[in-house]
Amino acid sequence: MGEFIMKDTIILAIETSCDETAAALIRNGSEIVSNVVASQIESQKRFGGVVPEIASRHHVEQITIVIEEALEKANMQPSDISAVAVTEGPGLVGALLIGINAAKAFAFVHNLPIIGVHHIAGHIYANALVQPMEFPLLALVVSGGHTELVLMREHGSFEVVGETRDDAAGEAYDKVARVLNMPYPGGPHIDRLAHEAEESVDFPRAWLDESYDFSFSGLKSAVINYKHNMDQRGEEIVPAHVAKGFQDSVVEVLTTKTLKAAREFNVKQVIAAGGVSANKGLRTSLEQVFLEEGIPFTVPPLKLCTDNAAMIGAAAAYMYEAGVRGDLSMNGVPGKELKSWK
Ligand code: KG4
Ligand code: ZN
C-alpha cells in the first residue's frame, strides 16, 4: 500500500497596513518558516507620527525585496505555496493597496488563491503561533489604532464586546510621549520610564460604568493639563513620574475590564494582542491576574505583538482551511469591520 503524505499548507502572507512592510511564510497555521519586517520607524520619527504618503512610498520601495527575502530565508519556491494572504484593512488605504497589489500580482502569476485578512484578526492569530487556541476565548486587542475586547466562540468567530470610544491605547501612549518630548512611537519609551520611577503622578481612570468600552482621551487630557499647570507655575515635571502615573491608569483599566469580561463569558483562554501588548507593565499585570484567576493567558513574543506578516499568515491558514477565498477584485478597506468568517 502506498504511503499517503499530506501536503503542508504554506501561506505567503503580506502586511502593509501602516508603517511596516512585511512578508512571511507560515506552515500549517502554526509554524513560522520565515518572517521579514522592514520598519519605517526611523524615517517616520522625524514627523512624530506616520505620514501616509511617506508610508506608501516606503512600501513601494520595499515590498518586492521583502517578499523575495521571505522566500529566500524559507528556502522555498512559489510552487511550494498553497495561497497568498494579505491585509485587506483596516489601515491607510495607500499603504494597504501596495500590499494588495503585490499579493494579486503574485497570486495571478503563480495561479494561487488569494485571501484577504482583517488586520485585527491577524493580531489575534499571532497567538496561534504560540499556543493552540481554546474556546470560548477572550482577546484584548490593543494597538496604535485599536482597543477592543473580542470574544471568540470558535475559529473565525468574532464578537466585539467592548471598544474604545475615542483614542486607541497606543494612540494615547504616542500622544503622551509627545508631551514628554519622547520620539515616535512613544509606547516603548513610556514603558521604560514607568519602570524607572518609584513615585507617580495620580491620573484618573475612565471606568464607563458597567460597559466594556474604553476611553483614553480624558486621561491624555489630564496629562496635558498637568504639564501646562506645572509649566505655568514654573515647576519642572518629572517625566518618569508622569509616565508611571499614565501607565498605571491604562494598565489598571485594561486589566480590570478584561478580567470582568473573562468571568462573564466564562472563557477558557485569554490572550493579548497588538503593539501595546508588548508593554511590560500590561503583560505582567495580565499574567498575574489570570494566574490567580486560573484562566490560561497567552501573549505573543514582542516581535509578534507589533505589526508583522506572520500573524496575517496564521489567520489566513485557518481561513484557507475553512474555504474562504478572495479574488483579484480585492480592494483596500481603510475602515474594515471585524466580521466572522464562520
Ligand atoms: O500593532 P501596532 O504595531 O500597529 C497598529 O496596528 O497600530 O501598534 C503600534 C502601537 C504604537 O502606538 C506603539 O506606541 C505601541 O503600539 N507600543 C507600545 C509598546 N510597544 C509598542 N505601547 C506601550 N508599551 C510598549 N512597550
Ligand atoms: Zn497592528
Compact overview of the structure:
Substrate binds at residues 141-145, 174, 187, 191, 279. The chain has 342 residues and is an alpha/beta fold. It has eleven helices and ten strands.
Question: What does this protein look like?
Answer:
This protein has 342 residues and is an alpha/beta fold. It has two domains: 135 residues, ATPase, nucleotide binding domain (Nucleotidyltransferase, domain 5, 2-Layer Sandwich); 165 residues, Nucleotidyltransferase, domain 5 (2-Layer Sandwich). The chain is built from eleven helices and ten strands. The strands form two sheets. Strands 3-2-1-4-5 form a five-stranded mixed sheet, with helices on both faces. Helix 3 links the parallel strand 4 and strand 5. Helix 5 runs parallel beside helix 7, helix 6 crosses helix 8 and helix 8 runs parallel beside helix 9. The two termini are 37 Å apart. The model has no long low-confidence stretch (mean pLDDT 95).
- Overall, the morphology is globular
Range of helix content = 40-55%
Radius of gyration: 21 Å
In percent, how much strand structure appears in the residues?
15-25%
The averaged pLDDT comes out at: 95
CATH superfamily of the largest domain: ATPase, nucleotide binding domain
What can be said about the biggest beta sheet? 5 strands, mixed
Q: Please give the domain count.
A: 2
Q: How far apart are the termini?
A: 37 Å
Q: Tell me which oligomeric state these chains represent.
A: single chain
Instruction: Determine the CATH topology of the largest domain.
Output: Nucleotidyltransferase, domain 5
Bound molecules: 5'-O-[(R)-(carboxyoxy)(hydroxy)phosphoryl]adenosine, zinc ion
CATH architecture descriptor of the largest domain: 2-Layer Sandwich
Number of helices: 11
Subcellular location: Cytoplasm
Domain Gcp-like: 31-313
Keywords: Acyltransferase, Cytoplasm, Iron, Metal-binding, Transferase, tRNA processing
Cofactor: Fe(2+)
